[in-house]
Amino acid sequence: MAARGRNAADVLVLFDVDDTLTAPRKPVTPEMLEFMRQLRQHVALGVVGGSDLAKITEQLGKSGLEPIQSIFTDYDYVFSENGLVAHKNGELIGTQALNNDRPVVLHSLQSLKSFLGDDKLKEIINFTLHYIADLDIPIKTGTFIELRNGMINVSPIGRNCSQEERDEFEKYDKVHNIRPKMVSVLRERFTHLNLTFSIGGQISFDVFPQGWDKTYCLRYLEEFQEIHFFGDKTYKLPALMTRYNNAEISSWLSDLHLIVPLICTYTSTPESTVNYYSLLACNKK
Ligand SMILES: [Mg+2]
């Protein structure tokens, strides 16, 4: 990418976590850690995940075969909860600020709560718990609702399930559409709140205000001339297209959903992430 006449320091490569750097909810492999280490010699690196910082650190900060590494030393930028909590070189540079386009450091981790207000939040939680209570599925565990800084995570089976139960639920859901049906009911019930419902991973879906998706982190990255985003749900980022719709569109990788200066590449597994990156690196020569 630097071969296109730009200083490598102007290029940021930004990665999603699940299905991009790791298998869903699994730790990063030593091979991927090594790939990242080499990549960082050429470009700035960032990671953006929907989970909170503790979960992202758990997945990316260590591997069974490698000594524990801090993600803050491996990545220039770490965006947890899609960037509602943002770190640069290990320093907190922002959390979601209400009614403010620019990121401001707030030392409160209750922003969704502040954004919606206690009454609306309670309404959503009550309705969701009632829905889950009436839901007849083979297994239920615990933690059906997890309130995070910028989103509500809802799991019909409950987040306390084992890996085996998780796998079983995913299969069951594919047949019975438990999550899609639930989302359509919630979407209709709460139309007035302008919420986005996003089904992801194996057992849950996220509920958050419109715009609080992975595009949120872009506001921290204006210093870069070029940003490459690798993720398994790039098709879900229409806001990216809007923001850069006047930019030139490069032809050399048009089949990979390429937009300059923001270049989105669809991946589906950690292996495809490495392969696509290698392809990009090859094409620039
Ligand atoms: Mg993903």
From TrEMBL:
Keywords: Cytoplasm, Isomerase, Magnesium, Metal-binding. Gene3D superfamilies: 3.30.1240.20, HAD superfamily/HAD-like. It catalyses: alpha-D-mannose 1-phosphate = D-mannose 6-phosphate. Mg(2+) 1 binds at D16, D18. Its EC number is 5.4.2.8. Its cofactor is Mg(2+). One of its GO terms (biological process) is GDP-mannose biosynthetic process. The active site is at D16, D18. It is found in: Cytoplasm. It is an enzyme of class 5 (isomerase). GO terms for cellular component: cytoplasm. Pathway: Nucleotide-sugar biosynthesis; GDP-alpha-D-mannose biosynthesis; alpha-D-mannose 1-phosphate from D-fructose 6-phosphate: step 2/2. GO terms for molecular function: metal ion binding; phosphomannomutase activity. It comes from the Eukaryota. Belongs to the eukaryotic PMM family. Catalyzes the interconversion of mannose-6-phosphate to mannose-1-phosphate, the precursor for the synthesis of GDP-mannose. GDP-mannose is an essential sugar nucleotide for the synthesis of D-mannose-containing cell wall polysaccharides (galactomannans and glucomannans), glycolipids, glycoproteins and the antioxidant L-ascorbate. PANTHER family: PHOSPHOMANNOMUTASE. Homodimer. This is Phosphomannomutase.
